[in-house]
Amino acid sequence: MIIVLKSNVSDGELQHVLERVESLGFKTHLSRGTFRTILGLIGDETKTTPGELLTIPGVADVIPVMPPYKLACKEAHPQPSVVVVGGVKIGGGNLAMIAGPCSVEEPERMDAIAAAVVKAGANIYRGGAYKPRTSPYSFQGLGVEGLKILRETGQKHGVPVVTEVTDTRNVDKVAEYADMIQIGARNMQNFALLTEVGQTKRPVLLKRGMSATIEDLLMSAEYILSQGNNDVVLCERGVKGFDKHTRNLYDIAAVAVVKGLSHLPIIVDPSHATGRPDLIPPCALAGIAVGADGVHIEVHDCPEKAKSDGPQALLPAQYAEVCEQIRQLAALFGKTISPSPGAN
Amino acid sequence: MIIVLKSNVSDGELQHVLERVESLGFKTHLSRGTFRTILGLIGDETKTTPGELLTIPGVADVIPVMPPYKLACKEAHPQPSVVVVGGVKIGGGNLAMIAGPCSVEEPERMDAIAAAVVKAGANIYRGGAYKPRTSPYSFQGLGVEGLKILRETGQKHGVPVVTEVTDTRNVDKVAEYADMIQIGARNMQNFALLTEVGQTKRPVLLKRGMSATIEDLLMSAEYILSQGNNDVVLCERGVKGFDKHTRNLYDIAAVAVVKGLSHLPIIVDPSHATGRPDLIPPCALAGIAVGADGVHIEVHDCPEKAKSDGPQALLPAQYAEVCEQIRQLAALFGKTISPSPGAN
Amino acid sequence: MIIVLKSNVSDGELQHVLERVESLGFKTHLSRGTFRTILGLIGDETKTTPGELLTIPGVADVIPVMPPYKLACKEAHPQPSVVVVGGVKIGGGNLAMIAGPCSVEEPERMDAIAAAVVKAGANIYRGGAYKPRTSPYSFQGLGVEGLKILRETGQKHGVPVVTEVTDTRNVDKVAEYADMIQIGARNMQNFALLTEVGQTKRPVLLKRGMSATIEDLLMSAEYILSQGNNDVVLCERGVKGFDKHTRNLYDIAAVAVVKGLSHLPIIVDPSHATGRPDLIPPCALAGIAVGADGVHIEVHDCPEKAKSDGPQALLPAQYAEVCEQIRQLAALFGKTISPSPGAN
Amino acid sequence: MIIVLKSNVSDGELQHVLERVESLGFKTHLSRGTFRTILGLIGDETKTTPGELLTIPGVADVIPVMPPYKLACKEAHPQPSVVVVGGVKIGGGNLAMIAGPCSVEEPERMDAIAAAVVKAGANIYRGGAYKPRTSPYSFQGLGVEGLKILRETGQKHGVPVVTEVTDTRNVDKVAEYADMIQIGARNMQNFALLTEVGQTKRPVLLKRGMSATIEDLLMSAEYILSQGNNDVVLCERGVKGFDKHTRNLYDIAAVAVVKGLSHLPIIVDPSHATGRPDLIPPCALAGIAVGADGVHIEVHDCPEKAKSDGPQALLPAQYAEVCEQIRQLAALFGKTISPSPGAN
Question: I want to staple A310 with a disulfide (CB 3.0 to 4.6 A). Which of A1, A303, B309, C258 is the partner?
Fold first, then answer.
């Protein structure tokens, strides 16, 4: 930790700063410059925070030198983590292909879509039973009934399932039915929910919030990891942008940045990032090319009748085409789509 | 609702579109242009959504003409709403002056800060018992113990209290101890939480999320209103920006925009918007000048020792000065700081 | 300047870093920490840049401790600068009231609008003769003819005039006819143009670019100052935002931030910041409340027939009302609208 | 064009609206709805603008149905354009590989870098002779001397050269020495400069501004096209973002969006988009995967001594590796790196 002192710091203030940081267990190195005086702190940075030091009179700035996400950072685990979801590996060269409709719908439709996406190459099936909808008047999901339909469909087609949880009171129920629990973008900083899923044994798919920095995302992962759940997969799904042509701004470079900072797998979600079926295939391929550990795509066999987010879903045939292209692209990078465990 | 058809729409597609919208109960007016064909829908817009119509083959765009926040919009309640919190009026010319420390701390400190801010002019006392912190290793709040301390302090000084709720499981408890329940920026789209506070009888302080559009904010208010709780006060506290000099980007024009769209009161929070004590006073005054119904400011008598967010708190003496300036400014606009109900 | 070295820096690399910075004339203070090693540089920071130091092998980060805008910074000129435009003072408690149509139009219209705004309180008259338009098919301004009309109108009504320059080749001509030269937001980083206006004797109104940081703005001012022209007035006119209700995002806190960093006057432009006549009055008042040295507002007596940007102009009667409110608000802050020099 | 009328529009206002639009040559279709009345305009949209119509009393909104970039849009030229730069094709399956140092430097260095990048696969050589620098105290480029060095280096190595122009007064000179003229991000809306390069016969590389929408970018291209110069290549180089890990926010989806709207080729610049050498290779590959027509990368053989932007340059060996990966990726998509015309 480096403390930059104010240019007009008095001797009394300086003395006080020194006493404070030494009382926190740090040794100090003082450098008096022509314009500014700086103070290097030698010791365990986790004993304080920049915010705390900033409040000491005479302090102009505090610069930390270690990442605050101690468990998520690469230094804590230099090799890429591999997260296993119902037998499907994610990370370390193994690609997750998560697909399915936005919402869980009636069993026949869920079955038809699952048959199509699994055939195409999907290895994890998705569908929302609890839907976070901007409007209170929109369809809010089928709840427990939806969880059951999703589970049965997954079992029939031999693929693990992932579904979103939106309320701490439902975490146990979701963990009972799902192989992987999703935290949506709007709940990325719902810390009570993060803590709760951190206490389950289920892998977590953590989507980046629309205005979350990469550090925010890794700190939210840290909430889950710090509860003892090591199986976190991150997901880039677009941040807030200013152009009306896409729903969000697909931040592909964030994938490469995360790869340099953390051992956790990270996948991309071009469906939510762009909100446009015509942009999903090229953006999915860009995700693989930049190094993502998988792709999350919404698929529906009749987008016109989807209960939510129909306009951004691919048709099964379009999805099959993307899968084929991803397979070829993955081969170029020495990666493979993880096989699904196969039908029961 | 206006439907713009694709330039190459076929007769068959057009026929299908007409059938679909008529089946939803709309009458239609078709205008065939040189370049594009448009379809005006006459009927009850709440029976469908633009997203649903967009999925019909041949449809290029859908333009709604009524706001989706039916209860929050001005058309539903042309006069400005006045929300009453423990006897303190907010809106309609009555200014809320919410002040207090970021976190609830020990009783003596809470008492000292309350004494100072109430004397200065604060009419609602704040303090967090459940703190949403970016890091799992930061102080997370005193919980129920904090709620009790806050309540007792408020009663002693004759002011209602507001505190944040972050978990659906704590809503009842918070509603028991607090006069007003705060939904923080990170939970603005935690719809389960919005629904739950909508079912209490407590007024709600709803803070705008960092990447929330004004429509998103009003839709979140709509969640609360649609549960039967009409007492919602909005709060502008800065959106995500790109300049490092401030913590967020204080969107003052949003206050004036909301005044044109909704009957709900809206206050400003220059503490979180700027994150810098030196910017709080001018930004608070700007908030009053633009038409806000009150100001939320963090105050601490020893920011250096605050358990959270110390660096962005005003000292009591600085707060007293701002209050005095706000009082004069308010008079110019024919507004007054609502008196606090007085000590028990 | 503080250099943070990479955690795995070798002794050889460290030696090389020390030699490099000493060859640049710096003395060094080395602090070896548990996790990181830091190096404080003592000497004249203007002899190098962080970018240059960052390229030395082994360097992880470089932290400057002096602002790069040496002439614009407060340290260079602790008192607020007062810029005088044709007899009208801006800064130091004197408010500029710049008003007029977006484009210079025919003489009769220019005369009528000038009569109205000067009567209301405007002390500088504006109008664009060279218009930066997004579309090549839009009206591009009257050119030299427009400059002449603007000049004559200003002289008749006894007010100085300001107009935009968009091409280095026109700087001399604009400087001949105008009392103040405007650099528009889209040209804020047109460094050739900044350099050219820096060589004139005319005061410059420098508008902030839509994605310019505050430091970018001050660096662009520095371009003008470094050419010997000290009369720069900054203008906040909104940055790029994500909400569709306003044209831009009015960054009012930037005014207060600039006041802390620089001696240059700064005004606000709520017309371009919001793009909506109904939002201009409250946002103008907010600008004065936050500490701006004046307000720039577009006024047209028939917005419907304006050659450009009609929809965001106030009517003369609306402008008169805003002026009256600003006058009262200014009095509260001990400021006054600078009187215009009076008709010839 | 569709006009949405205000909900409380009077009959007199409606009559006035009808007269105005009919006087502009439009036929009208009126649809009176339950909540709103809309008016469809049938005729040549280029005769008016939404802004003009918005000023008519009673008009609430105006919705255009044709893109305002008439020459740049796909409707004007359904096949992808192929731009030829000194014999090198860009677009239509032909990839541009633009590489070289940020600034033109001394001849020996330029020669060494050119030898390396051309050997690796670059087909256009770049270097700035006129540098737009944020600080007036930074190196501003070698000017005409730099143009000569660049030209000679290109000729020696048999590759065309591209360099930036920043001042209308230098356009002729730059056009004389360069095979392609670059308009930088900061000048994307320097309309005088766009008009001037539109009057040369040189192909133009137009970089997207940091807060430019995709429509803004295409409108700036339209400026050049409307002057008779059809050879415009667009370039995505990152927009303003809020995360500190990258210099800008690489908007890869914009490439796919542009492909759907325009016939113009578009390349990517991961150097400026990310500002970090370690992110350039994965982001370059992502650009090819999403469909870009080429990649612009800064390369320097000694970034530590580069006169500008050294920290974001690749070393020649790193560049060679990226080229090889791009070659393989391109083959997968049926594209090829255009061969350079060969040494004189």
Answer: A303
Q: What ipTM does this complex have?
A: 0.88
pTM: 0.90
Residue pair D232/D206 in contact (Cβ under 8 Å)? The answer is yes
Question: Looking at the structure, do residues C165 and C42 belong to the same domain, yes or no?
Answer: no
pLDDT in tens, B233-288: 999 999 999 999 999 999 999 999 999 999 999 999 999 999 999 999 999 999 99
**Same domain? D19 vs D99:** no
Can you give the CATH number for the domain in which A12 is found?
3.30.70.1140
Name which residue leads in pLDDT, B187 or C305.
B187
Tokens, residue C39 = 């190096």
Tell me the residues of A at the D interface, defined by beta carbons under 8 Å apart. Answer: 211, 213-214, 239, 241-246, 249-257, 260, 273-274, 278-279, 282-283, 285-291, 328-329, 332
Report the Cα D121 to chain-centroid distance in Å: 22
Provide the domain limits for residue D57.
2-63
The 3 state secondary structure assigned to chain C is CEEEECCCCCHHHHHHHHHHHHHCCCEEEEEECCCCEEEEEECCHHHCCHHHHHCCCCEEEEECCCCCCCCCEHHHCCCCCCEEECCEEEECCEEEEEEECCECCCHHHHHHHHHHHHHHCCCEEECECCCCCCCCCCCCCCCHHHHHHHHHHHHHHCCCEEEECCCHHHHHHHHHHCCEEEECHHHCCCHHHHHHHHCCCCCEEEECCCCCCHHHHHHHHHHHHCCCCCCEEEEECCECCCCCCCCCECECHHHHHHHHHECCCEEECHHHHHCCHHHHHHHHHHHHHHCCCEEEEEECCCHHHCCCCHHHCECHHHHHHHHHHHHHHHHHCCCEECCCCCCC
Residues 6 or more apart in contact with residue C317 via CB below 8 angstroms: none
Closest chain D C-alpha to C138 CA, distance in angstroms: 9
The CA distance from A130 to C222, in Å, is 55
Q: Does residue B107 share a domain with residue B56?
A: no
Give CA–CA dist A139/C274, Å, rounded. 35
Structural domains counted in chain D: 2
Q: Least CB-CB distance to A191: which of B133, B189, B209?
A: B133
Q: Is D16 exposed, middle or buried (0-12, 13-18, 19+ CB in 10 A)?
A: middle
Residues of C in contact with A4 (CB under 8 A): 2, 63, 65
Q: A254-281: per-residue pLDDT in tens?
A: 999 999 999 999 999 999 999 999 999 9
- Give D256's contacts in chain A (Cβ within 8 Å): 274, 278-279, 282-283
Residues 6+ apart with CB under 8 A from B308: A51, B102, B103, B128, B131, B133, B138, B139
3-state secondary structure A90-159: EECCEEEEEEECCECCCHHHHHHHHHHHHHHCCCEEECECCCCCCCCCCCCCCCHHHHHHHHHHHHHHCC
Two tokens, residue C23 = 């060859």
User: A315-333 burial by CB neighbour count: b if 16+ within 10 A, else e?
Assistant: ebebbbebbebbbebbeeb
Nearest CA-CA distance, residue B318 and chain C, Å: 16
**Kind plus residue range of the DSSP H or E element containing B285:** helix B280-290
Instruction: Chain B: give the shortest CA distance to residue A306, in Å.
Output: 8
In the sheet that A27-32 helps form, which strands lie side by side, from edge to edge? Answer: A27-32, A37-42, A2-5, A59-63
Residues B189, B192: Cα–Cα separation, whole Å:
9
Same-domain check for residues A225 and A119: yes
For residue C32, how far is the Cα from the chain centroid? Answer: 43
Q: Are residues A109 and A182 in the same domain?
A: yes
B206, B309: one domain:
yes
Nearest chain D Cα to A261, which residue?
D245
